[in-house]
């Protein structure tokens, strides 16, 4: 697993696929319900994802989810992660009706286990926001992105680069919703954080 993860981080996806495939075969020996098998399946699925082989990734994600559910029940972070992986995969395929309940379940599970303001909530909020944005449901996407922004500001401080990223994502939603002036204000804040212009020039422009 460590070797596969290293290859994946280095962008050597062919090597990662070969290593994770071997890991799945070895993990099968622990039993078909072993969580080490679920982890190996998830990692192999992620590698297929990185190579654009979404159809091959889906059954691996489904199988990993089933193992985690049978082992831990519904309320576990590994279950939430597997739900998220599968939901994002459906979103990428344009299968929005299938993606939404998975991503909503992932978000609800993490919120129950971690609390509403935990930094790890950001990923689930953004993924559900992307789903709604892809469908043009900007009124549903906006509060999710605003919540992600607030969590990052609280956890990281108002000047962090990840806060700039959240500002830019929220600005894009508002821009698509036809609220260009609000979007520009957020984009200007993000630009200040990223050092692209001074606060003085931003105020002058506003």
The global form is: elongated
Unreliable segments of 5+ consecutive residues: 198-206
Rg value: 19 Å
SSE arrangement, N to C: HHHHHHHHHHH
The percent of residues in helical segments reads over 70%
What is the CATH topology assignment of the largest domain? Serine Threonine Protein Phosphatase 5, Tetratricopeptide repeat
Annotation field: number of helices: 11
Secondary-structure-derived class: mainly alpha
Write down the CATH class of the largest domain.
Mainly Alpha
**If you average the pLDDT, what whole number results?**
93
State the total count of DSSP E strands: 0
User: In percent terms, what proportion of residues is strand?
Assistant: under 5%
CATH superfamily of the largest domain: Tetratricopeptide repeat domain
How many domains? The number is: 2
